[in-house]
Write a structure and sequence with these properties.
The complex is a heterodimer of chains A (about 240) and B (about 550).
Chain A (H helix, E strand, L loop, with lengths): L1 E10 L2 E11 L4 E5 L6 H8 L7 E6 L2 E2 L4 H6 L1 E4 L11 H11 L4 H15 L14 H13 L5 E5 L7 H16 L3 E6 L2 H7 L2 E6 L2 E7 H7 L5 H8 L4
Helix pairs in contact in A: 3-5
Chain B lengths: L1 H16 L5 H37 L5 H30 L1 H6 L6 H16 L1 H17 L4 H13 L2 H17 L6 H27 L2 H8 L6 H9 L1 H12 L2 H33 L3 H14 L5 H15 L1 H24 L6 H10 L1 H22 L15 H5 L4 H31 L3 H28 L8 H6 L2 H27 L4 H33 L4
Helix pairs in contact in B: 1-5, 2-3, 2-6, 3-5, 3-6, 3-8, 3-9, 3-11, 3-12, 5-13, 6-7, 7-12, 8-13, 9-16, 11-12, 12-13, 15-16, 15-20, 16-20, 17-18, 18-21, 18-23, 18-24, 20-21, 21-23, 21-24
Classes of the chains: A alpha/beta (about 240), B mainly alpha (about 550).
The complex binds adenosine-5'-diphosphate (ADP) and magnesium ion.
Chain lengths: ~240, ~550
Amino acid sequence: MLEISGVTKTFNDLKAVDDLSFKVNDGEIVGFVGPNGAGKTTTMKILTGILKPDCGTVNVNGFDMAKSPLEAKEIIGYIADSPDMFLRLKGIEFLNFIADIYKVPTDVRRERIETFATRFGLIDALDLPMQSYSHGMRQKAMVAAALVHNPPVWILDEPLIGLDPKSAYELKNMMREHAAKGNCVLFSTHVLEVAEKLCDKIIIINHGKDIFYGTMDELSAKYPGLDFEQIFLEMTGEK
Amino acid sequence: MSTYTALTKAFIKSLSMSKSNDKRTRITMKVIVAVVVLFIFVPVAIFCSLMTYSLVDNLSYFHIQDLGVAMVFHMISLFSLFFGFNVIFSEFYFSSDIEFVRPWPVKAWELVASKFTVSFYVDNAMQVFMVIASLVGFFFAAKPGVMSYVASVFATITLPILPLCYCGILSMIVMRFTKAIKNKEGVQRVSAVVLAFLILIFVILFRVLASNAEDAVHFFVTETNSPFVEYMNKIFPTVHFISRAIAFGSVTDLLIYLLINVFAIALMLLVAELLYFKGFENLVSNGKAKARSFSALMEKSIQTTPFKAYFKKELMILVRTPSFFTNCVIPNFIWPVFVLIILKMQTYDASLTALRMYNTNRPKIVGFFLIVGSVVFSLIMTSLNSIASNAISREGKHFQFMKYIPVPYDMQWDIKVLVSFLLTFIGIWMYLLPACILIHINVIYVLVAIALSILSITFGSYMGVYIDSIQPKLVWDDELSVLRENTNVALSMGIALGISIAIGAVCYAFYAFVKVRLLLVSLSLFVLLALLNLFVLWRTAKRGKKNIAEQEEM
Ligand SMILES: Nc1ncnc2c1ncn2[C@@H]1O[C@H](COP(=O)(O)OP(=O)(O)O)[C@@H](O)[C@H]1O
Ligand SMILES: [Mg+2]
């Protein structure tokens, strides 16, 4: 369960997130949609404890991010928006490093690394430095690392960017499987079709404010006769 | 042969194509070239000329003027050998055009021959310059005949062939039989380390020689020959013959010289036939080999504590990033070179026997200098390697990683301090401790010095990380700029230097004007360092975590 309530974040004079509240329940996939600069990344950084909100609270499975940050961070799997991390390490070293940080036991990590490496086609690359990876491969390594401790809460910032179709398909399946097991997934995207197909609920934000929060059916009911893309452009005022 | 010519032409063309077309870069390049010529080429050339001139001038008196030429040529050959590695390795194994050519039906020797030619073409400006400069010196000192001029022309063009052949053969052996080098950065790293150690050996050799000035001179020249040249002739036999050919205008020597060069090239090409292509197999391991090693990778995937894992990651980043490696890691281990150079420039006798004698006569003064010296040196070294004062900035773009992992900030902080501490401490004492033992310094003094040095390094490290945490430089393009442009590095160096100067001055005043009271000095240093440590630990506890938590520039 992931809950954010009354969160505001200002950079200098800019309100990047403005009194935002929503909740992702266990078993749900929630899409976080909005135009560039809407405040998606900032919100996710607040959810993961990277940024401190000016006001408001973040609650992860009952742990308050301000009061018990370590417990909260332990149950989150986060994929940042840029995958260029620790390029001097080999893929396998990176995965083991992250697994150590999250205290994943030896046999469990071996099984998970094998699963991810097989599903993402990373096996041949594991023993190479990540500097030699393409953008997509780096992104895959990031996904594998973020999920290697099997966190109950997934926070994924534009996770599909740069992935080849097969890997994107795998990741989407993983998200569904994960939610089906009673975990929660929040992911941001600006690819509307993905959100449409994958999500139980969506949150649309613009200028840091949420302008819609609910199921796809509720959204269509609100704007009869329009497809999702038209609705989105209508709501964000870019039409 | 035509394959060879075609390949060589293509390689040289691809060299000139990779040059930048951007106007600004071209102007910058021109400026750099001008600076290099003015401040390196010209002084080196003048040095070569003068040295050859005076050697030949003096030695022709004994009719051994060839030794003068030989000495300078040996030095130039050594120079080619050292700097050739990088170029040869990169050209043979890591240039991008190799990838295109390898699938073609080209013979190994043809490929190596043309790559060798290209390296020769790229790498030789400096050597040619040095050879010409020393020949000018020679012609002023001696009045040689026509044959000497002919031999000189050959020397100018071909002197670096033998050293570069050595580089070529060695590179092929290394690539065939070891897995030490996997990419260009690996080459640079290895050659940096090799160069550092060679310099160290040379300086030590010089020290040993200089401890007895007469022996030293005799090592280079006696009245009939030169042991130095004789040793070196075994390494570069070509130099022996070409310097005789130039000095005495001897045709046979010139012919032998040319024969040896041909032989060296032939040997290299033979080695190429045997080893060159196989060397790539180590480099580009194919999918099958990888799949087999997957189980091996899994075998090595064993859980460790977050502390150890984070520590290992910090070390790997420092060692594997070339600019961090050369600026943060290497200095800890090559400082004796600089100490020896400084000692060399001083006039007093610093040979082991002299130091031992001094220690027996005045143990307290030696102890005093050891204790104060190791405190000051530890402080300076800690800030100089900037492992601590760059610890947060080093994270750069992925600084946020520190914040979303479930590892307490103070643990991450302590690990960064620990890395700085260990590298500095080991680097200092792996040399200083054996030196103390060799000089027979009182064990108590050594222990006190170690204890105070530990306090010194912990203070320096905690201070460095703290200063860097206030406003880390997180936005940078390459790793060198984060070292050069990070004001935190400069600031903590300034502070360390200030404290060092203060400690040094006060202690020196004690030494010069009051009696040396070791106990008092040690105790006051202990109290001072303990207070400094407490202060910086208090600041860290009070503000350190907050500095990281509140840092939002990313
Ligand atoms: N560290 C920062 N300092 C100042 N402004 C920032 C910072 N991070 C984000 N912003 C601003 O906040 C707004 C929201 O950005 P972001 O959350 O990255 O949007 P999104 O991910 O939805 O594209 C943008 O206008 C951006 O310029
Ligand atoms: Mg974003």
